[in-house]
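Form 7-S
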Amino acid sequence: FASNTTGMPEGVVIGRSGIVDERAFYVLNTGHAHPIRADDYLDYPRMRAMVQTISDTPDGGLLIPSADYTYWYVVPPPLPIPDGGAGHTVYFLNLGMTSMNVGLDVRVLDQMGLAYPLAAHTERLDDGRIGHDKNLYPDWVVVDTGMIDKHPWMPGFLDEEWVTEARVALTCPETQDLLTSYRSELTWPRFKQNFKDALHLASYRFERVPAYEIQRCNLEPPFPDPAK
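Output:
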């Protein structure tokens, strides 16, 4: 039924219920009346370019979307490259269409935190749209995925100092506890510790601006204020 129903028959008007049917958005941007298959979403801006970019970079890397719908930035992994490559990570909001069109060996992370716990634990953007009210800067992801953190290997819009600050900010003990809770092997002791820490970790939030997070966590800044 859903695949044969036109989304938002009133156009772009949101009714009094406040419920938004976003299918019209994807119909317009894919050019398909009922985009439900992976192939349909290859016609969405950036998707074909993403697939081609992964194919063209066998060493792996972090894919960050550019303003140009036909191009992705790739932050490469450091040398030495392991046999078979270091793997790809795609950093993009739209999880479904990306996941459908890449292999199971490709990580797909999003800045809103739906599939990325690190982003999920940032503070909300005031008055942000529900479900779109968080936005983790890609500087953090360069560090978290272990990619090269210097120009010219990073996109020009990323700041080396911000990336360095993000590296320091990630050492915050509470953030490390969060990462360990879901990245370490799920042993019986880990399960018990996660159960014990569940309420605290669920409510834990950190600042998405690295310099602010360093201050919040009382860490030593990598670039001390010369006036102090």
